[in-house]
Design goal:
394 residues; alpha/beta; VC0802-like; Rossmann fold; 9-stranded mixed sheet; 7-stranded mixed sheet; 37% helix; 23% strand
């Protein structure tokens, strides 16, 4: 009696002409995630099936729970489409159940001799006869025994588990995530991955004003995001010279605004260098001075590249809930400041004027500094598996 993980696609089935591409990408991502395990994966237009060794089931389930594009899955019994064998298996699969139940039959194989409703009634009777701890409730049962009858095989299952949903990572092009050490940006990275976007991460550091611990914090956050894909490049930007010039030459109230404008300019150059099509960040409307709509508009004015803000309309508690779910919260609250918090002025402007920004930027040769900075960026390639995390240093 064989068990398989039966995966259902959900949103992927709405893709019509592109469905095959989405399913193939999901198939490849699951293959990568389960590499090294004793499994076999098969697929069709509506389902995917993972055959596994019983001793590896916990590992298989843990890993597929980190794969975007899976709407739901069941651990199903697989048996030949034979009337007597199906009945025998139905009795076996329900022998330990208690409470109320119902039977649902999905007769994909129309050559099967018994109609779905009648077969469900027959199986329900057999289950009741062999398990006195069960009663029928077709409206709100404790357990639903589902029987899917296909041409060659039939699948029986009682439990349904929900996956992460979304799209498989890689069905979209690459985005460049501004990853600070805070709570919001890792959540934005997670949500971008959920929509199928492959990401590179970019961290701005200002040593000695920021610490190596702050960098390591960002590396740990990147590792957490790596659970949902295979490899992420982390670009470490030496931002010290630019930040010091800003705080020497510019109006203190405008320093954060100018700093963010410089970051966006650098992000655009890194995106073009690394084939990224969008900038992604953790800005949430109104959360801090640089995230008012006026500030966003003025900061955004330095680039024509699209900027995606996945958490823009979430409140802080909603963002924190997601960060705890993806296990980044405990890392994000470690007390190591990044360059966005280490020099925060007492009264940052919340409604900046773009002409005032331009006037401040004329006070130093930022284009030369940006060019130097981009040429000094260090890139670490982080892989999902711990033993490979720092295998590549570019």
């Amino acid at each position: 009696m064989e068990r398989v993980v039966l995966i259902k696609y959900g949103e992927l089935t709405t893709k019509k002409g592109n469905r095959k591409f989405f399913i193939n990408t999901l198939y490849q991502n699951i293959q990568k995630k389960l590499a090294g395990l004793n499994i076999k994966i098969s697929r069709d237009i509506s389902r995917m099936y993972i055959e596994f060794s019983e001793q590896e089931i916990d590992t298989v389930l843990k890993k597929i729970n980190q794969v975007f594009g899976i709407h739901s899955y069941q651990i199903a019994y697989k048996i030949e489409t034979d009337l007597d064998k199906i009945k025998e298996l139905a009795i076996f699969s329900m022998k330990e159940k208690t409470g109320t139940f119902k039977v649902e039959t999905k007769r994909v194989n129309k050559k099967f001799p018994i109609q779905s409703t009648e077969f469900s009634r027959q199986i329900g009777g057999l289950v009741l006869k062999n398990n006195s701890n069960l009663t029928v409730d077709v409206h709100n049962p404790d357990t639903t025994l589902t029987i899917e009858i296909l041409d060659r095989y039939t699948y029986l299952y009682t439990d349904k588990y929900f996956g992460l949903g979304g799209y498989p990572v890689g069905v979209q092009s690459k985005g460049m995530l501004m990853l600070s050490g805070g709570i919001d940006s890792p959540v934005s990275g997670y949500l971008a991955l959920k929509r199928g976007v492959k990401i590179d991460c970019v961290y701005f550091e200002a040593i000695p004003h920021t610490s190596i611990e702050a960098r390591n914090k960002v590396i740990e956050l990147t590792k957490k995001l790596c659970q949902y894909t295979d490899t992420i490049k982390l670009h470490i930007v030496p931002f010290t010279k630019i930040q010091e010039e800003i705080y020497k030459k510019c109006n203190p109230e405008y320093c954060i605004t100018i700093m963010r404008r410089m970051m966006y300019r650098i992000m655009e150059k890194l995106a073009k260098r690394n084939k990224g099509l969008v900038i992604i960040n953790g800005e949430s409307i109104g959360q801090v001075a640089s995230q008012t709509l006026t500030s966003m508009s003025v900061i955004n004015a330095v680039t024509n590249m699209p900027v995606i803000r996945p958490v823009a309309c979430l409140d802080k508690l909603e963002i924190i809930d997601i960060s705890k779910k993806i296990d980044t919260y405990a890392i994000s609250i470690l007390p190591y400041e990044d360059c966005c918090t280490v020099f925060v002025p007492k009264h940052p402007v919340i409604n900046p004027n773009i002409s005032e920004c331009l006037k401040n930027e004329e006070q130093f040769d930022y284009e030369k500094l940006i060019e130097e900075t981009v040429n000094e960026v260090q890139t670490i390639v982080i892989h999902e598996e711990e033993k490979k995390e720092f295998a590549s240093l570019l």
